[in-house]
């Protein structure tokens, strides 16, 4: 059970991935994303999650270089966007992302969405990048069980990570079980439902019980389910608050109470029905 901000899960290839990371979706390129990344690294975060689609890889890379934290101490994730999927185009997209970030290697490279007819070729490109040493780990994002099974049917390397929408209203129990069974690390995006979960009576009650903020209760619930979490914020106080989750533990019955909030409610797109 993680009790320190520097605690990591170990992916199936032996690579360590921090349990907590900073998400930078919609953080504006330039000062906004740079300040968010620098603040997070100063607080003790050692994982930053970006994507080509976020259009802020340059700022993320700049902030990391200027942070004073050694590159090898930081776990950098980026992703290939849908319109670049396919074998050769993915290799090109990766090189563009790597240059924007200004790094020699990326810690984790993900397929952003399971684009029909493309993601298996894209996966082959990720396997090549991994074998060539440009990435320390490879994975997918927004993949359902059937997508994972499809990739794994003829993959040389099983995905190390699956980053999906995961929060108390979308607990994805079957997917979580499948990933644990196959040694695929589940990772939560939009874990705090953009704040929509903060007024939920169960969460408020638990926040009072543990003398914590609603956000901290939800993020701790992620960790205790063995799910890596990457809350997004550009505000210093929130970035600090989201990291203050390593000094308490939710009781089993409280974990179950949060589980019971599930409504299979998605805020983002359905991985089986998206058109972007």
UniProtKB/TrEMBL annotation:
Top-level taxonomy: Bacteria, Bacillati, Bacillota, Bacilli, Bacillales
Active site (catalytic residues): 54 (proton donor)
Residues in the signal sequence: none
Species in which this protein is naturally found: Tepidibacillus fermentans
Domain NADP-dependent oxidoreductase: residue ranges: 26-263
Swiss-Prot/TrEMBL site (Lowers pKa of active site Tyr) positions: 79
GO function terms (MF aspect): oxidoreductase activity, acting on the CH-OH group of donors, NAD or NADP as acceptor
The keyword Repressor is annotated on this UniProt entry: no
Protein name: Diketogulonate reductase-like aldo/keto reductase
The entry's keywords: NADP, Oxidoreductase
Chain sites annotated for binding substrate: 112
PANTHER family: 2,5-DIKETO-D-GLUCONIC ACID REDUCTASE, NADP-DEPENDENT OXIDOREDUCTASE DOMAIN-CONTAINING PROTEIN
Family stated for the protein in its record: Belongs to the aldo/keto reductase family.
């Amino acid at each position: 059970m993680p009790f320190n901000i520097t605690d990591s899960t170990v992916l199936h290839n032996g690579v360590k991935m921090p349990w907590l990371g900073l998400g930078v979706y919609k953080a504006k390129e330039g000062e906004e994303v740079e300040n968010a990344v620098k603040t997070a690294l100063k607080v003790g975060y050692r994982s930053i999650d970006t994507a080509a689609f976020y259009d802020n890889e340059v700022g993320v890379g700049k902030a990391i270089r200027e942070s004073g934290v050694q590159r090898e101490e930081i776990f950098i994730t980026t992703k290939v966007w849908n319109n670049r999927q396919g074998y050769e185009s993915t290799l090109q997209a990766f090189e563009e992302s790597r240059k924007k970030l200004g790094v020699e290697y990326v810690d984790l490279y993900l397929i952003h969405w399971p684009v029909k007819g493309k993601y298996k070729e894209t996966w082959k490109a990720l396997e090549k990048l991994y074998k060539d040493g440009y990435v320390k780990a490879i994975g997918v994002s927004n993949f359902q069980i059937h997508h994972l099974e499809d990739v794994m049917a003829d993959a040389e390397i099983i995905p190390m990570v699956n980053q999906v929408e995961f929060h108390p209203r979308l607990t994805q129990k079957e997917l979580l079980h499948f990933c644990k069974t196959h040694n695929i690390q589940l990772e939560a995006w939009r874990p705090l439902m953009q704040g929509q979960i903060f007024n939920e009576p169960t969460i408020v009650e638990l926040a009072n019980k543990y003398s914590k903020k609603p956000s901290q209760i939800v993020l701790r619930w992620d960790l205790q389910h063995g799910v890596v979490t990457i809350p997004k914020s550009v505000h210093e106080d929130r970035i600090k608050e989201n990291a203050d989750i390593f000094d308490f533990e939710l009781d089993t019955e409280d974990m179950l109470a949060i589980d019971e909030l599930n409504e299979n409610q998605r805020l983002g797109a359905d991985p089986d029905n998206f058109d972007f």
